[in-house]
Fold this protein.
Amino acid sequence: ASKAGGRGRFSFFSSQLLRVAEDKRLLEEDLRDALARDEIELAYQPIVDARTNRATGVEALIRWNHPVRGPISPTIFVPIAEEADLIRPLGEWVLRKACQDAASWPGKLRVAVNVSPVQFTHDSLPKIVLSALAASGLAPERLELEITEGVFLDDCPQTDAMFSTLKQIGVRLALDDFGTGYSSLGYLKKAPFDKIKIDQSFVRAATLPGSRNRAIIAAIVALADALEMETTAEGIESLDQLQLVRNLGATHVQGYVYSEAVRSEVLSRKIENGEWILPPSGPTRQRSD
Ligand code: C2E
Ligand code: MG
Ligand code: MG
Ligand code: MG
């Protein structure tokens, strides 16, 4: 009986694995046509200056509205796109669309675009960036590329060259999800980042009594300050968290306390109405300017 039970368990697990793999394959197939079928769009979340409480930019976040399954999180389909070599066409579309949208907004908000390590290690990226800027007329300094520590995984010489080419173009560079990847700090020395984004996992528990995350956030801010980089604290959901990361010196904040990501037209309206200056019942400004 125990033998049969063992086999039963085995086939239970293996059929589950099969189902997961099959599901991934189906999603990959659907993803191939998603752009052409107009199922992909961008949403924009404000990034706010911690001192003035004003949005200085937005982050473009990709959205896939699957015709049958509904919205699918990029945390699920971006890795699939990376494996299936679909991230480069998707990423190019994101860059072009984000630049085009940003050029249409009133004012001079920056737009931050997430760039996969797969895109970053490909020679074509500078040409695509230049072409997206030229087609939209967006000034290079209004475009920020968000890169994760994943680009440093294989220490290839092209990575350094890519950084300097992008800096020559004049776009800004941000290191995303800082602290979640590989703890080597060596790359901070050589890569010309304008900003470090402190991962939301550090913010999440930081307001709890005795949390070590406060010390970690303070250390990241000190490091960034010394390297003359800005810091965005990600995933700020409450006014307590907002106050805390401000006190710890983060230069920028981003999170649901201000707004979720919204569509480009909604963003334009919000800018015109002067919204996104203060969160609901937000704290008073720390500096009178
Ligand atoms: P990320 O670049 O770190 O983006 C921040 C994520 O945190 C977004 O999730 C955003 O909606 C979410 N977020 C913002 N504020 C809060 C908050 O207060 N609380 C919580 N719990 N979450 C918050 P989203 O849009 O689901 O994207 C997830 C990840 O998918 C992104 O993480 C990024 O790594 C990737 N991604 C999104 N768009 C793109 C893209 O166009 N290209 C590439 N390569 N990756 C993308
Ligand atoms: Mg990002
Ligand atoms: Mg992040
Ligand atoms: Mg993330």
In short: The radius of gyration is 21 Å. Residues 2-34 form the longest helix (33 residues). The mean pLDDT is 89. Strands lie at 40-49, 55-66, 70-72, 110-114, 143-148, 172-178, 195-198, 230-233, 252-253.
